[in-house]
Amino acid sequence: MMELVTGGSGSGKSAYAEMSLCSISRPGSGGRAAEDTKENTEEKKTEQKPPLYYIATMPSWDKETEKKIERHRVMRSGKGFLTLEWYTDLEDRLKSGDCPPMEGAGVLVECLSNLTANEMYMESGAGEGTAEAVVRGIMELKRRCAHLVVVTNDVFAESASDTPEMRQYKENLGKINQVLAGEADRVTEVVRGIPCTVKKPAGVETLCTEEQGETEIRMQTERKDRRHVKIITGGAYQGKLAYARRLYPGMTWTDGKSCRLDEIGICSAVYAFHEFVKRWLEAGRSSAELTDLLLEETKELIIVCDEIGCGLVPVDAFEREYREETGRIMTALAERAERVDRVVCGIGTRIR
Prior knowledge:
The two termini are 26 Å apart. Strands 3-2-4-5-1-6-7 form a 7-stranded mixed β-sheet, with helices on both faces. Strands 9-10-11-8-12-13 form a 6-stranded mixed β-sheet, with helices on both faces. Helices cover 41% and strands 18% of the residues. By secondary structure, the chain is of the alpha/beta class. The radius of gyration is 21 Å and the shape is globular. Catalyzes ATP-dependent phosphorylation of adenosylcobinamide and addition of GMP to adenosylcobinamide phosphate. Keywords: ATP-binding, Cobalamin biosynthesis, GTP-binding, Kinase, Nucleotide-binding, Nucleotidyltransferase, Transferase. Pfam families: CobU.
């Protein structure tokens, strides 16, 4: 079984991918490795669980990447993953004599966007043959292991003009995504931490497979009590505010781009929330403080926010932080939201 997981920056796709693989490879584990109690130790003597491999593709370039790598290590700690730091040449590594046994294993590849960049720009990479090399490596993994989850990134939705180099990168990643989506049994887009099925396995009539449903249920049970937060999300200029006004008539709307920072604690409906987050961070305040403030409120709050996590990673350090923190804030809010709607071309769809 192969699943391709996509989403923007800070969308929650990595957390979903880990839970999805654990729920399929080790059903009933809840995504966590069992503690070594006396009973479990006796059970392990007779029952050998299949290995879980985490193929990490992000090299440690600087403090920023080290911070990201550490965050992912913390996320997967206790889940039983064995980490393989493979930055290029997946096919050759799998065929080498020192490759660990993959038969019956569950494998998570995190992620294609880094792997593609590595193959294009690292000295050991495939260069002009990047797309073909990445696809061959993933398909070799699919042939060898029992369950494969591959994480990719949506870097294709942005208004900024691309350099020729960036166009080539996007073309390679787009080609890889399309080929692997065709080969995958399931394709899932994660929006604000919510898994949305793009392609379902053959023979499955519902949009949510049994395993995916279990993953979503597990993610829900880990949430605390729901708050009276309602979210409308989507790309820029998609008609989100008009949809929100129709869905929630009679509300007084606060403009997140120009309101005072302290208004967020007293308003009942805010649009351009992504602009508010930017101003909040520029003022030196933390995303955790904002998230806690909004979740502590007991009154109803309606939030309209652009999806800004798609597109290539910004060059500016603050812009990178702003994009990721906005995604994480919205994912945290969506986890405990009463309702989440996504608007595309003026058409709203309730995704939670």
